[in-house]
Amino acid sequence: MSTHTYTPPTSSASRPAWRRWSPLVPVLVVASAGLLAASAAFDGDTFQHCEYLGPSTRMYLTAWSAPLCSVAALLLLWALHRGARRRGQRLGVSVSGRLAMAAGCLVPLLLLVQLVVLWATYQPDPSGGNDCSGLGALLSGLTA
């Protein structure tokens, strides 16, 4: 008989890695959606005083970083799922795992919209002309 009694560790280090990292998936999805909203808010950067300036640097940064966050969320979800399966567990047993899976379901639609925004960032001047001609003139006449 041994007098040694084993007490299981209660620190967060005893939790499997997939449980520690699973809250990061919804954070990445929310960040990706926020970057998509920011890129839509920066659309006004292209024109100033009826002159086409082209997309700004912050438009390029948000257009590229939003899909990168979405892809990172999908890759992290895939890695978490594999890590859980390797240990004979399911990702959906914990609340954070279920939240990560629910956030992962939003990523394909979000990624599709983000790729369209990225494509539109590299398209030529939508007004069809220089200075105050084309669509720019029509839009400025409606708001004036």
Provide structural commentary.
The chain has a two-stranded antiparallel sheet. It has helices at residues 17-21, 24-41, 57-86, 95-121, 135-143, and strands spanning 47-48, 51-52. It is elongated. It has 5 helices and 2 strands, in the order ααββααα. Helix 2 packs antiparallel against helix 3 and helix 2 (24-41) runs parallel beside helix 4 (95-121). The mean pLDDT is 79. A hairpin with a 2-residue loop joins strand 1 and strand 2 (51-52). The protein is mostly helical and 144 residues long.
Quick structural overview:
The protein is mainly α and 144 residues long. The protein has helices at 17-21, 24-41, 57-86, 95-121, 135-143, and strands spanning 47-48, 51-52.
List keywords for this structure.
single chain, 144 residues, mainly alpha, two-stranded antiparallel sheet, 2 strands, 3% strand, elongated
Structure annotation, total helices:
5
Main-sheet strand order equals: 1-2
Our measurement of the CA-to-CA distance between the termini, rounded to an integer number of angstroms, reads 90 Å
Shape descriptor: elongated
Order of helices and strands: HHEEHHH
Q: Which blocks of ≥5 consecutive residues have pLDDT under 50? A: none
The strand count comes to 2
Biggest sheet descriptor: 2 strands, antiparallel
How much of the sequence is in beta strands? Answer: under 5%
Mean pLDDT: 79
Helicity level: 55-70%
- The chain-level structural class is mainly alpha
Give the C-alpha Rg: 23 Å
